[in-house]
Amino acid sequence: MYNAHFRCFRGCPGQWPLYDVIYTCPNCGGLLEVVHDTDALSDRSGAAWMRLFETRSGTTQFPYGSGVWRYKEWVAPDLRDENIVSTFEGNTNLFQAVRLGEQLGVPDLWVKQSGNSHTGSFKDLGMTVLVSVVKQMMEEGKPIQAVACASTGDTSAALAAYGATAGIPTIVFLPQGKVSRAQLIQPIANGATVLALDTDFDGCMRIVKEVTKDNTIYLANSMNSLRIEGQKTVGIEVVQQFDWAVPDWFVIPVGNLGNVSALGKGLLMMKELGIISKLPKIVAAQAEHANPFYQSYQQGFAEKIAINARSTLATAIRIGDPVSYEKAAATLQHFEGVVEQASEQELAEAAARADLTGLYTCPHTGVALAALTKLIDRGVIQSHERVVVISTAHGLKFTQFKVSYHDDELDDVAARYANPPIYLPADLDVVRKTLDRKLAR
Hints:
It contains 17 helices and 13 strands.
């Protein structure tokens, strides 16, 4: 009854099945988007959709226990259940950041722990959809032999894991020496062919786009709109977790910009189908060393800006030429959005400060928290508003970042919240004196 198809985001004529090997518009070269038949979806009221999604929450019935496939009719409605490749992704917790919120001046602060997923990042949400569609395409006789992506770490981990689950070969292109060891080992362990190229992410992206012109290798980067369909469920899930109440703000770290457009897409779909009546505002947070979207925002999105991104602690968003710029700019304009940046000092300090209140943040979440702090200080975000920060990855993927911070070994970062271990002899008197000094502070 329900269906979806690809359409040009810029509005060119034509539509294509989700099961065609196509990534960009044949007419203008722009990105595609997945369009749902909302007239058909409107056969259920907003209240009926809410009841359906609630009955699926927490179930072990495949595939609806997944935080993505709970919303199957809104994601890939005609995908056959036997082809769904799922690790029951999503269903991640909302951390009520009471202490941190009080310190920052927004007591109603929440952190969506998207890193508490199968491979430790929000990328699982999109990869379950893409790999599932590929599995169905292969069963239908498409000549796909492998799926490939360029990655700064998390995308490659998700692709490799879902490919291994489905038995589909995967290829990942990584920028040599610019990915954490924890991220590097994930695709290796899951059996992907890992190519570490002597370039940055943008260089890897250029090569993977050429490689996947051969239709036997399918492109898995976020320029592929199938990924967006899974990633859009994060906002839907947050609203459901708040008993269908909409927060005032979402704050999300961005690099290639697929995640911010996905967040907006899910929220717009909820409004169109009568589940919510208002939209939140969205903050896109960038590292100052990789800030092309921020620079475009400063010029009113008059044009796309591309840069050579500099080294940043927020390695996963070190992207100077974001693929999903047009979609992200449209999203920010629709949601009265803001783009803010964070320096290396600010992101490292924000991450450390959050950890001292019970979180365990990746550096990219540090970027989002630093941006939030600046917007609170400027009065853009008010103390009475409910704010949700999207934490995109688990802090355990970035152990060296944290160790280096607490050892005060990060270049150009003053570690004000450093808490290194205290090395002592096994002497009770020395231990007691040390503890007395520590607890007297």
